[in-house]
Amino acid sequence: MALVRCDSVSGVALSDRLADQPAADGAPSRPSGRGRTLLRLAVAAVFVAVIAVVIAGQWQQAKPLLGRLSVASVLGALALIWAGLYATFRCWWAALADLGGELPPRPAMRVFYLGQLGKYLPGTVWPAVTQMRLGRDYQVPPRASGAAFVVFMLVIVGTGLLVGVPVIPLLGKDAADQYHWLLLVLPLLAVAVAPPVLNRALALVLRLARRPPLPAPLSLGGILKVAGWAIASWLCYGVHVYLLARQLGAEGGALLWLQATGAFAAAFASGPLLVIAPAGAGVREAALLLLLGSTITAPRAAVIAVISRLLFIVGDLAWAAVALVAERRLVVRLPWPRRS
Q1: If you count Cβ atoms within 10 Å of the first and of the last residue's Cβ in the chain, which end, N or C, has fewer?
Q2: CB under 8 Å to 164, separation ≥6 — which residues?
Q3: Contact indicator for 273, 8 with CB cutoff of 8 Å
Q4: For the chain, where are the E strands, in sequence order?
Q5: Sequence-separated (6 or more) residues with CB below 8 Å from residue 186
Q6: pLDDT band at 21, cuts 50/70/90?
Q7: CA 205/CA 218 separation, integer angstroms
Q8: Domain residue extents for the chain
């Protein structure tokens, strides 16, 4: 996990340079409108192509099993994923606001949801790079967008482990043997996301990269708000796994929901560990299969893992489409608010 933190923090400096942000906060020089359009169309084409490959790779596994799930259960699971993705947006938005910036809802959704499509490219840096590029449309300094992404990722991984680790003993001996090391990671993450530690780390990275400091430091209230939205997303995701498991014949009430929530949170948090996998593809599914397999049987866990991945892709694309439609005619450039 320390590797994840170091890669994420260094991603601020790397992505800041990729975003081509000058040291001053003045408006950067920008390519022509036609050049921007062509560049964004090219990037969008790459995103769509990678997503299509991900879908094609999992479709053959999911197709024979779709008949076991009712349309209502699949739509219900998709609605819960939609709600969870909205909670993750609010998690990132709260981090950005606490670091000194305020974006209205529609621009913030455009920056976040379109940027999140970058996770389907190999490497964890691309969502940050994309969000920083899009944030410049509203005069958001790339260093602030990059720092918000770092905070967002650390909190998502940290709260995922916080929710998942206590449940692991309930998932069987195999799960406990494979993931007992996470008990050692939690204290390290707790220290890493503490505002005094994280603020110093971000300030050091910006200073080494010769970038101006952040508009405002991260506060304790801000990190608690970010964590609250992250935990809300885990609750939504846990219900979607529980719903699919029940539809597939798994037995249990509150205990099954608790197992489903903890298993998915721990599996999801393990995705960023493999930085070359698009959106943690394969890592999350393997972890979910191991964690849930001894509880609801391996075949059911495999169906849930594949269907869940496909529904997440649909949810990401749908939210990105909503953000595009909502922002289609927005032309006003917003000043970057500063705190005294």
Answers
A1: C
A2: 182, 262, 263, 264, 265, 266, 267, 269
A3: no
A4: none
A5: 158, 161, 162, 165
A6: very low
A7: 15
A8: 2-16+71-326
DSSP string, 186-232: HHHHHHHTSHHHHHHHHHHHHHHTT-PPPSS---HHHHHHHHHHHHH
167 CB-contact burial (10 Å; exposed 0-12 / middle 13-18 / buried 19+): buried
The pTM of the full predicted model, rounded to 2 decimals, is 0.75
- Cβ atoms of 283 and 271 within 8 Å: the answer is yes
User: 177, 111, 118: which is closest to 138 by C-alpha?
Assistant: 111
Q: Which distant-in-sequence residues (6+ apart) come within 8 Å of 29 by Cβ?
A: none
Candidates 110, 220, 86, 198; CA nearest to 151 is 198
Predicted confidence (pLDDT) per residue in 268-285, tens digit? 887 665 544 444 455 677
Please tell me the distance from the alpha carbon of residue 82 to that of residue 76, in angstroms, as a whole number: 10
> What is the per-residue pLDDT for 179?
67
Query: At residue 67, what is the residue type?
Result: G
